[in-house]
Amino acid sequence: MTRSSAREIAMHIIFSLGFNNRSAQDILDAELTRERFQELADELPLYEQFPNEKQERYIRDLVQGVFAHGPELDDCIGRYSVGWAFARIPRMAAAIMRTAMYEVLYMPDIPNAAAINEAVEIAKKYEPAEVVSFLNGILGSFVRAEFEDTPPKPEKKQNQPEQEGE
Length: 166
What we know:
This protein has about 170 residues and is mostly helical.
């Protein structure tokens, strides 16, 4: 299993946190079992391989961290989602942004660009293009504002008409 797959599994679990009153630990204990992976593998190839010890630790740390810092992460999403009320953001998109923001803020071994790029790639599997673009914009604005050493977003070049003879 790759780190990307482990991240996506963590996002599934983070997504499910919003639908019940169970603790992150309870949900992790129920979802991170070989039996549960076997049940899900028929529908989702992502679950065909059970995580090794390192990957399981990463999933658990990520889910527990997002659970513990949920209000803070939601506040960040709200501050950078210009023109969108938090309640309007699709739940999977919110879970993806919470995950990426947690990685940026609390997992220094993961480069900010990797956290954002992975979030965008996973979002493409679950959300329409306009939501993916919105998510990318929020995460990019968040990183540029919170980390001064992040280079500014490059400006798009205008298409210039070709001149004759070129």
